[in-house]
Amino acid sequence: MKCGYKYCKNNIIENEDEAIKENGKYYHLSCYEKKVLKADIFDAFCGYVHNNENGLLIKKKIKDYIDIDGYNPTYVYFTLYYIIKNKIPLHSIFGLKFVMNQKKVKDEYEKCLNKYKNVRIQPENIDFVYKKEFNGGWRDLIG
After folding, report:
1. I want to staple 88 with a disulfide (CB 3.0 to 4.6 A). Which of 5, 74, 83, 121 is the partner?
2. What is the Cα–Cα distance from 93 to 10, expressed in whole angstroms?
3. Tens of pLDDT along 109-125?
């Protein structure tokens, strides 16, 4: 079965149990997440920026940023959240890429990722050896 996401790198879904079905199409989990995040980015952008840009142009640029330029969809979404939170004026979809390329935003994203990463602590190898002490009384026989 084929993945319904147009820009899927591995178009064939091998395990049907792990596929996500929506509107008669099947998606890989990662492809479905990209699809949903792109829709969320579009909605958030249109809710924050009020201009005369065509919705198709906005969707195309979001698609270009994620599928062609290789930006992580969560990073694009984080950048838009950062813009809204800090009330940075944004007048066009092209300004979103300008903000995504700023070092300050990249550093904030890395901080956020590091904050929520799972920390793996290596267990220490402690060898425990039980040594029974004999006191020379009835307790030694009973245990």
Report:
1. 83
2. 29
3. 998 888 776 666 666 66
